[in-house]
Design a protein that fits this description.
Elements: H1 2-20, E1 44-47, E2 52-55, H2 63-75, H3 79-86, H4 95-107, H5 111-124, H6 129-141, H7 145-159, H8 164-174
Antiparallel strand pairs: 1-2
Length: about 180
């Protein structure tokens, strides 16, 4: 009897712990790395300072955290939530915010709208390789491989052929079904 009670308590504790720890989203690449940002329940945002999920309406969460969290949501397939998070930014006109807005809209099937957001990001920082990768992927989706290759060559001039952005876009051009 003692053994079964102990087992039940351990199991309950383990289950409770599993629900209290945020899940991690897939991501990749330096400051754009969504893998380091936990996902939170809908209506919340990850606050890197307090290291916990807080209400997305909290004024204490800076734009940088909101922007990175929007990318985390998008990489987790929560595209509409990502756009809603980007709508909470005090300054939505940063290269990252515009890029992630483009990414989420493209993933929602609105490729042309995504391209327009990517171009705004490029205008702010033409040497931002991540937006060049995503813009190139959008061109692949549209069947505009010449424009995708132009982005690939731009990425090569920014970070060479070994950076993640170059490798990912190169693969997308070679195997469009992987996008």
């Amino acid at each position: 009897m003692k053994h079964s009670i102990a087992s039940a308590l351990f199991g309950a504790s383990f289950a409770l712990a599993a629900f209290s720890v945020p899940a991690f989203a897939a991501g990749g690449g330096n400051s754009d790395d969504a893998a380091t940002t936990p996902t939170c329940p809908k209506g919340q945002v990850w606050d890197s300072k307090s290291r916990k999920c807080v209400k997305k309406t909290s004024s204490a969460v800076p734009d940088k955290d909101r922007t990175e969290y929007a990318y985390t949501l998008a990489k987790a397939g929560r595209y509409q939530e990502a756009l809603e998070m980007l709508d909470t930014l005090k300054n939505p006109n940063t290269k990252e915010a515009l890029n992630y807005r483009g990414y989420a809209t493209r993933k929602l099937g609105r490729t042309d709208e995504g391209i327009s957001w990517y171009k705004k990001s490029v205008a702010l920082d033409p040497k931002y390789a991540k937006v060049r990768e995503y813009l190139g992927e959008a061109y692949v989706i549209k069947g505009q491989l010449d424009l995708a290759r132009d982005q690939l060559m731009t990425i090569k001039s920014i970070c060479g052929t070994t950076c993640e952005e170059y490798r990912d876009l190169h693969e997308a051009i070679e195997k469009p079904s992987k996008i």
